[in-house]
Design brief:
Distance between the termini: 37 Å
Low-confidence stretches: 1-17
Number of strands: 4
Helix content: 40-55%
Largest sheet: 2 strands, antiparallel
């Protein structure tokens, strides 16, 4: 039996933004993407503030300008910013080969958690994929 609480959120549903953003409201999709990117960045408020406009649900600058500014960050954080921009707008141009060469196992775990959240893969499935003891994949 279905209840209103079980209903899938409609794309037009709006909800409050996180406290440190002064966004009046955001769509469900924007909220879901923000939660996903927050997982990717390990909720690093400096990185999130680097990426997002604090007043409206948008990137802080055009993607190209953010990517140029991200060049001042360490290589791992540059790639996190690129991946976040890809998730938000599809304009990050993240190179899989760069990610493979740069990210450590913790960053990969954060990425996998973020993608599982994005694709709504349930927690127990995710834990079946990730070996918490060594940060690698269980095959």
């Amino acid at each position: 039996m279905s209840t209103l609480d079980d209903a899938e959120p409609d794309e037009t549903d709006r909800k409050p933004a996180p406290d440190w953003f002064s966004w009046d409201c955001i769509t469900f999709q924007q909220s879901h993407l923000l939660e996903t990117i927050s997982l990717l960045t390990e909720a690093d408020s400096e990185l999130l503030r680097f990426i997002f406009n604090l007043r409206i649900p948008a990137l802080r600058k055009p993607a190209k300008a953010l990517l140029q500014e991200a060049a001042k960050l360490g290589s791992a954080n540059q790639l996190v910013v690129q991946a976040a921009i890809d998730l938000w707008s599809g304009e990050g141009n993240t190179s899989f080969s760069n990610v493979l060469a740069t990210w450590d196992s913790n960053q990969w775990v954060q990425f996998i958690r973020a993608i599982c959240h994005l694709k709504e893969i349930r927690e127990e499935v995710m834990h079946g994929l990730i070996d918490d003891q060594n940060g690698g994949f269980c095959l």
